[in-house]
Amino acid sequence: MDDHPIHKIQISGTTLASVLHRFFSSTGDIHGLLFGHVSFSTTISLSDDPTSNFSSVTAMNSASSSGADGPTLTATITDFLSIPSHFPLPLQHKHREDPSSVLLGWFSGRRKTPLRPSLKDSTTIISLSSSASHSFTPQNSPYPLSLQPSLFLLLSTPFQEQLIHTHEYKAFQYRISTDSFDPKSLDVINIGPSFRSHYGSFSPISPFPSMTCDLRGPNAMAEDEKAETLVGIKRGLKDQKELDLCAEGFEIGRLSKLMGSDSSNYTAELEHLYDKMLLKLDSLARSVETSSAKVLEQEKHNMKLRYKIAGLE
User: Which residues cross the membrane (predicted)?
Assistant: First the structure.
């Protein structure tokens, strides 16, 4: 098997967040498998010198040894499988949802431990890399190349409890030729064409919906009579419904007072509007927190059922 260095390891922000959430929500240490793909970079140095026209294999070897520009390997982690650390790793597991996804390596989450691979980690990664059934070919490979799962992601928590810094992680690649773990930088990818769908509906500005809030003229009595018409009532209900999406419980009539030259006299109304908006955000946050807790509880229940069916309990 070929033993080429991985020059770059990438992981999406959602995948890394899921791994960290699974680690911190578990009752003990966990470990699991990492899935994704490996591809060659397309950035190759161009030269007018005819003596620099080497073969693809020579370019790959020279880039690997000297770090110069050339075809380099990039690993992208897209998914994972986690189980409690006291269960053995399911090394024969295949990623059924995405046939193009291959086994890249494994990860381990251990609380309050140094970010150094242990002897057990070496044994596990050697077992992965020595199995011919786990070999794969990188995407867009310019020549036949067979790689083995060699990535290792180590997660840990600080030795002292901290409110802000709650986790640590470090990526490695196991090199068969040197029988050692090479530290690698882990790039968290949240932007780019492949992640555009995650932010397609995102808007940095949250304006109020377009509502027909007319300024009150000198004849307030006439405007009140106009508002009592059927059309005015329907329009008021529609505007109130749209306003409730931003600040639930704030009347549309009070919003109209904040428009015009007299708006400076209604500072209290504006503060009350902000309070309602904050209450709406707090309600949404609590709803998300409750639903996340239910999803986690269901995941734990499903895992217990899988262990029971597999006869691991």
Answer: none
Backbone angles phi, psi at 255, to 5 degrees: -70, -35
pLDDT at site 53: 44
Q: How many CA atoms lie within 13 A of 309 on its CB side?
A: 6
Rounded to 5°, the CA angle 81-87-91 comes to 50
Contact 247, 276 (CB under 8 A): yes
Both tokens of 160, joined, read 């002292």
Inter-CA distances, 178 with 15, 65, 104, Å: 30, 14, 19
Domain 8-199 is classified in which CATH homologous superfamily? Cytidine Deaminase, domain 2 (3.40.140.10)
Distance CA 306, CA 61 (A): 45
Where exactly are the structural domains of the chain? 8-199, 206-313
At 265, phi and psi to the nearest 5?
-85, 0
Tell me the whole-structure pTM to 2 decimals.
Answer: 0.54
181-211 residue pLDDT tens = 999 999 888 755 655 555 555 555 555 555 5
Q: Rg (Cα) of the chain, in Å, rounded?
A: 29
The answer to whether the beta carbons of residues 195 and 178 sit under 8 Å apart is no
Q: Which residue is associated with the tokens 């992601």?
A: 153
**Cα distance between residue 95 and residue 87, in whole Å:** 19
Please say whether the beta carbons of 250 and 239 come within 8 A: no
| Measured distance CA(110)–CA(112) in Å, rounded | 7
